[in-house]
Protein 1
Amino acid sequence: MPKSSRILIADEQHFNRLRIERHFNQLGYFAVAPVQSLEELLILVEYASEPFDLLLVNAAMAGGKLDLLDFCLDHGQLDRVLIYDGQQAQLPAIPTQKPRKVQVSHAVLPDPGMIHGLMAAPI
């Protein structure tokens, strides 16, 4: 993905957002927007002037208020999505090895290797 890719991180935990953003910054990606609530996520996605190239979202963010997997699959403003900590939300793992719009990881937090793989994979 180009270094100008628009990246959205959605996690309720401030430390998690910072940690993920730091991984992107170390790879040279700086167009990163962190959000801390489901409401912020929905507003940014719904009213964005341009699609987000990548959304990383903690599966617990939906809190039973939204079918996160369906939302991400169906929304045109999201080019690619990684839902992490999917086991907590009882989502099936969708491997990150093959390019697809939505991937689900049971990892509690994306590590640098996972983020590097996401950014290197063809769209």
Protein 2
Amino acid sequence: MTASAPEPFELFAIRYANHPGRRASDNAIGGDLHESASDLDYFVWVARRSDRTFVIDTGFDSGQAAARGRDLIRTPRQGLALLGIDAAQVDEVVLTHLHYDHAGTLSDFPRACFHVQDSEVAYATGRCMCHGFLRHPYHVEDVVSFVRHVYAGRVAFHDGTVELADGLTLHRVGGHTGGLQVVRVWTKRGWVVVASDASHLYMNKGRQAPFPAVHHVGEMLEAFRTIDRLAASPRHVVPGHDPLVMQLYPPVSAELAGIAVRLDEMPRDLPGGSR
């Protein structure tokens, strides 16, 4: 960046839930049924600087945790409060896609504008939802809630790449869903990509091993290339569900260890085979 580079964003990941006991075949197409595999952690993210605050995704609530056998540690709203952010006062929320674990709890953000890709809404409300395999990761009540926010004039639709602020851009990659988008954020360590479900785990991108919940495998594989191109290095890519994120990045404070980490700081080296 030149001398006119924008003010960098602080960037945080907040862990709010967990799914233990997964097998390798649950996390990658072709995974060995007998091999142990990573749990999934569930995050919301925050990009914050003096003039703007963006919340990235809104997680799920206790109802969906119970219905899907996930361990809800804290609500996303409670997690945000630990960083001094009142969900009720947040003006802008990026929804990477509309799956239950990324686009629930919209009512906790009563003044926010929700940023989403045209193709994601078309996918989540179109003919693909006639197929149980594709609609399973969506929660119909969350989708209905989202549509109500459309009618209330509180959704910003985007088609492809868009700059929301000097130093924060959205990029449609698809693959996992019809309109999945990743978020590129300018930080003090350079361009960081919040990959969300473009790569659930470091392993997915590192081994070119697509996650089994997928709409278009070809787009998912191309997304791995896209996020590498957008990020300053492989260490600047943050996967959507990897518990390693809590281990590799420094905590916001000693009290928030295991809860919230700073993604604008360099992580420790990634494990072998994860780059």
Protein 3
Amino acid sequence: MSPDINPLVLFFASIFTSNILLANFLGMCSFISISKDMKSSNGLGLAVTVVLVLTSMLNWVILKYILIPLDLLYLRYIIFIIVIAATVQVLEMVIDRVSPALYMALGIFLPLITVNCAILGVALFMQIRNYSFIQTVFFAAGSGLGWWLAILALSAIQKKLLKAPVPAGLKGPGITLITIGFMAMAFIGFSGMLSVQ
């Protein structure tokens, strides 16, 4: 039985108040590393969103129609990771063909989407919360867009911080982590309006 949550509420909550990155802190590695460049941030945000939606849909179908009926639920982690790895591999080949410049800009972080814990986290939340297929699609799309919004916001802020008088001891990772903390507080500030549990 899936929870009685309107898919649109789920969509907007997963972008803002239950942001996979700023509320759950999943997917921080590539978020911090790539956010120094706006074009790469935009490309990675798009890639993460596409992978989130595709893998969540595939994992939901596999979970409901193969793993649960055959009583193979104990294999869900392995299956989810295989689906994610295969999807990322296909996406990597497509990006290499369509935009070699973006492929080179993303570098090692494109294959690392495979081990981005936000991708697996969304699949596990979908299963733990027992979402329907439509809820899963909206949750995955919202989580991807939320991740994308967060990385673009951090990239824009970091561009401004290059010209700001940041104390020497805070330059680099220090000011980046402080900025992420403020971003998280800003996003979670809307939690009275929408919430997903």
